[in-house]
């Protein structure tokens, strides 16, 4: 599949929630295309419907209207805010959870899990338990568990929000490198604009509810490297300030 090929087309998605008294329009006319190997971040005010969009994409919720076009064989992997590791299972067995659920514990997938553990510095911890790992290492395990089923698109729902700032920066750097090295497409929801600008190829800015697309930025950073180094560029500061203004805040970019 060519790198610039569109693998996902989302058109005019609406989501309405019904209560006893009224209807609440959460997302309105949400449209965008995702390319092979592209990393897209979605930002917006708290409660604007960012996570709802991910839930619709992976089938946890149904859109009220609109269309989603994709190949029948396109596979999604969902990485949540919490690592959700089972404390009574070893790191290796936690990584196999998705394979067990989907009945994919064949040699090909097991070899892939072992390769991921070795490549990303967790092989020596495969027989340890989650309580023995740092927060950053637990998130790496969570990502490997998500990658184990060989998804085409990763859906990342505030994946670093439970981490302290220093760990968050380091882990976002790790996750970015892993996604790029494994040639995956990704859609990440985050409230952290710095995270979005430093990691994504495109940033979609949503309005307050009912959520509509307020702006889309193609993030063009000269000599793009990794998220930590991208934060030191003048382009980072420019996009950061533009997006803050779109969302309605007036502060200077942080680290």
From TrEMBL:
Listed PROSITE patterns: ABC_TRANSPORTER_1 (PS00211), ABC_TRANSPORTER_2 (PS50893)
Annotated organism of origin: Candidatus Coprosoma intestinipullorum
Pfam families (alphabetical): ABC_tran
Domain ABC transporter: 8-233
The UniProt record lists the keyword ATP-binding: yes
Domain of life: Bacteria
Transmembrane spans: none
Molecular-function annotations in GO: ATP binding; ATP hydrolysis activity
Keywords, comma-separated and alphabetical: ATP-binding, Nucleotide-binding, Transport
Entry annotated with the keyword ATP-binding: yes
Protein name, as recorded: ABC transporter ATP-binding protein
PANTHER family tied to this protein: ABC TRANSPORTER ATP-BINDING PROTEIN, TAURINE IMPORT ATP-BINDING PROTEIN-RELATED
């Amino acid at each position: 599949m060519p790198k610039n090929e569109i693998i996902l087309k989302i058109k005019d998605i609406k989501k309405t929630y019904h209560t006893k008294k009224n209807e609440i329009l959460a997302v309105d006319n949400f449209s965008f295309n995702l390319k092979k190997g592209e990393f897209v971040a979605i930002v917006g005010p708290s409660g604007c419907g960012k996570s709802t969009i991910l839930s619709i994409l992976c089938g946890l919720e149904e859109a009220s209207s609109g269309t989603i076009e994709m190949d029948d064989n396109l596979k999604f992997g969902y990485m949540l805010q919490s690592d959700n590791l089972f404390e009574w299972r070893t790191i290796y067995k936690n990584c196999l959870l998705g394979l067990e659920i989907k009945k994919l514990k064949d040699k090909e997938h097991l070899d892939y899990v072992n390769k991921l553990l070795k490549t990303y510095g967790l092989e020596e911890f495969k027989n340890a338990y989650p309580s023995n790992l740092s927060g950053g290492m637990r998130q790496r395990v969570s990502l490997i568990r998500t990658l184990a089923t060989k998804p085409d698109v990763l859906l990342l729902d505030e994946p670093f929000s439970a981490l302290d700032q220093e760990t968050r920066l380091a882990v976002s750097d790790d996750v970015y490198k892993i996604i790029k090295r494994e040639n995956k497409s990704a859609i990440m929801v985050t409230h952290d604009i710095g995270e979005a600008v430093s990691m994504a190829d495109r940033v979609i800015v949503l309005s307050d509810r009912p959520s509509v697309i307020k702006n889309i930025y193609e993030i063009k950073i000269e000599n793009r490297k990794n998220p930590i180094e991208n934060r030191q560029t003048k382009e980072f500061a420019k996009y950061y300030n533009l997006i803050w203004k779109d969302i309605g805040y007036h502060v200077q970019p942080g680290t």
